[in-house]
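Exam prep: given the inputs below (a chain plus guanosine-5'-monophosphate), describe the expected output before reading on.
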Amino acid sequence: MKKGELLFEGNEKQVYATDNPDQVIFRYKDVTVAYNNVKRARFIGKGALNNKISAILLNYLNQNGVETHFIEILGEKEQLCRKIEIIPLQVVVHNRIAGSLAARLGVEEGFRHPNTIVDLRYNNDFLEDPFINRDHAFALGLATYQELDEMYNIARRVNELLKPLFHKAGIELVDMKLEFGRASDTGSIIISDEISPDTCRLWDEKTGERMDKDRFRLDLSCVVENYNNVLTRLKQVTES
Ligand code: 5GP
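Solution:
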């Protein structure tokens, strides 16, 4: 397999073509951005850590019947993925209220609720990723109602699989953002982006310490050390 031209460069990732039209290479960068690119920094080692963490989680989902774009790790910062047609939506799953949802609902961060909350956002930097509903998504031609149903069902299934996996590692999966695409080979709806401490809120179950991107957002120290801790613990529970 040969690495081809750069197809896309985002803040935190690059996507390269390969000689297989249905496969691309994802390269994870050390750059971190937050608050719609207002805040930006570089953490040496972050890209490699997210590549490895995401590979573990996506591989775990593949093995448990949830189709994702992940195929295999290629190197420190790179993974081979299935090519997809991007669906510009973010499906956000909440197990506890935190972050922007706490502000939106006017409750304390950490508020526990008995149900799983699923939010839908339009992935659009210019509009600052606004919350939308299924009708808006359909009206904008972003997805059909059937595809939206599928995305909600897959998101709930991902949560049912990853919550206990993180729990085994002594980590609480507070919330996570998922993205989907249509696989270029089969057309099926699959998970199409990373799942990592950049896209999830992860709290240490014993100490309550944040182990995710909030360390950067909130100017807490030890970003890379915490991501490394997540990787070490996930390796322990998936390799044993
Ligand atoms: P919030 O709405 O509090 O910013 O985010 C809720 C969850 O989704 C958090 O785990 C957060 O990391 C993730 N999330 C939401 N929007 C984005 C985004 O644009 N980029 C990334 N990487 N994660 C996001």
